[in-house]
Design brief:
heterodimer; A: 156 residues; B: 281 residues; mainly alpha; two-stranded antiparallel sheet; 2 strands; 73% helix
Chain lengths: 156, 281
């Protein structure tokens, strides 16, 4: 057993090994490990954030859906109202038309009746005139007796 | 086994392959086997870790990278537990010590005669394969650590602060007179402590591994002296089985020791370095 130059050599080798480890091994690997740690932490943070965002988006979507539902029911209600209104209007229109047509028909009938009466009256007067002519056996001057006849017609 | 006797066998295995740079000078003698095997283990350590560091990726790690990261994470945790200061040196130093010393110790698990036997074919007759059974190697590392500790003592505490600690602790005087009186004992204790640190650090590793290697040799000695014919006999077979079982048991137990010793060396180095940073006194 001798203590000697081997010890010095070992010290030098040891220092070299430590220096190499210090420079090329430790920081590189630890750096990678820390970077991965950071990546994982970032990933987890991003997941949390995404969860919050998802919740927010869901809430928003729910809000929009509710609003849309409300609007839809409003539209339906107004459509129903409108339909009722149109129906009522149509009903009213139909009734009015019916009344108008009925009154027109009544007027026409009255007119016809009047015309028929007039014709009848005229025919009666001419018949009466002819009868009178025959009765008198004498020609009656239309022009002389027209006024008389007209009075007669009016009386009938 | 050339010597044929048990004592000769063990003596042969405890002898380093030495190169005398200066004739008959103990200091200028290199233990070539120790130096070569420390360098081989250092190259294995740096090569493996360097390879992983070169191909390191922050994304999904490969299995090899995972393994290395596990070791680095383990060392990092231990260092962070003991060492609460900013330093770019201490953690890599701890990693180097842990892995390198482990690899040196691991040479002990290679069957004691295997590498020396291979060496005989290359014309090398003496070879010790476990560098950490060489005091030069363990002291080389512990002295390097203590030099770093001294350096930090001077730079972090300042020469005055270090002197104050050296003469003012562990006994603290209430007044100036008592302080002067206690400076002597304090200095004595601190000197002992300063010397004991590297010596105990180096000796602990050396002692454990030396003893471990010696026990492997003693187990190997079991079949020594049995010729080939005798090996076929009942006694010979029993001896071979006993040797195998003992070797296996000791090797399994030794796995614990080599890891533990590497760990202790690392932890104590970190503790000493942490003390040198401690300016709280």
């Amino acid at each position: 057993m001798n203590i000697g130059i081997t010890l010095i050599i070992q010290m030098v080798v040891f220092i070299v090994v430590v220096l190499i480890t210090m420079k090329y091994i430790w920081p590189v690997i630890l750096g990678a490990m820390e970077e991965r740690e950071k990546q994982i932490a970032d990933g987890l943070a991003a997941t949390d954030e995404a969860e919050v965002a998802l919740k927010k988006a869901q809430d928003e979507a729910d809000g929009i859906l509710n609003e849309a539902k409300g609007q839809a029911s409003e539209v339906r209600e107004s459509a129903n109202k409108m339909a009722t209104k149109i129906k009522d209007q149509a009903k009213a229109d139909a009734i009015a038309e019916k009344e108008r047509q009925m009154s027109a028909a009544v007027a026409e009938i009255e007119q016809e009746a009047n015309r028929a009466k007039e014709n009848l009256r005229k025919q009666v007067s001419s018949l009466a005139l002819a009868g009178a002519e025959k009765l008198l056996s004498k020609e009656v001057d239309d022009k002389v007796h027209a006024d008389l006849l007209n009075d007669l017609v009016k009386e009938i | 086994m050339a010597s044929g006797s048990i004592g000769g066998y063990i003596e042969h295995h405890l002898k380093n392959n030495q190169l005398e740079l200066v004739e008959n000078s103990m200091f200028w003698t290199i233990n070539i086997d120790s130096v070569i095997y420390t360098i081989i283990t250092a190259v294995v350590f740096l090569g493996f870790f360097g390879y992983v560091a070169k191909n390191v990726k922050a994304g999904v790690p490969s299995k090899t990278q995972n393994f290395i990261e596990m070791i680095i994470n383990f060392v990092n945790e231990q260092v962070n537990d003991l060492f609460h200061y900013q330093s770019k040196v201490v953690a890599p130093l701890a990693l180097s010590i842990f892995v390198w010393v482990f690899l040196m110790n691991f040479m002990d698990l290679i069957p004691v005669d295997f590498l020396p036997w291979v060496g005989t074919y290359a014309g090398i007759n003496e070879m010790r394969v476990v560098p950490s059974t060489d005091l030069n190697i363990t002291f080389g590392m512990s002295f390097a650590v203590i030099l770093l500790v001294m350096y930090y003592n001077f730079t972090k505490k300042g020469p005055v602060g270090y002197a104050k600690e050296y003469f003012g602790h562990p006994f603290e005087g209430p007044n100036t007179l008592m302080k002067i009186v206690l400076a002597g004992p304090n200095m004595l204790l601190n000197t002992v402590e300063t010397i004991a640190k590297p010596v105990s650090l180096g000796l602990r590793l050396f002692g454990n591994l030396y003893a471990g290697e010696l026990i492997f040799m003693l187990i190997a000695v079991f079949t020594l002296g049995y010729g080939l014919e005798q090996l076929m006999s009942f006694g010979g077979v029993t001896m071979i089985v006993a040797q195998f079982l003992l070797g296996l048991m000791w090797a399994l137990f030794h796995i614990l020791i080599i890891t533990l010793q590497a760990f202790i060396f690392m932890m104590l180095s970190v503790v000493y370095l942490a003390q040198s940073h401690d300016t709280g006194h």
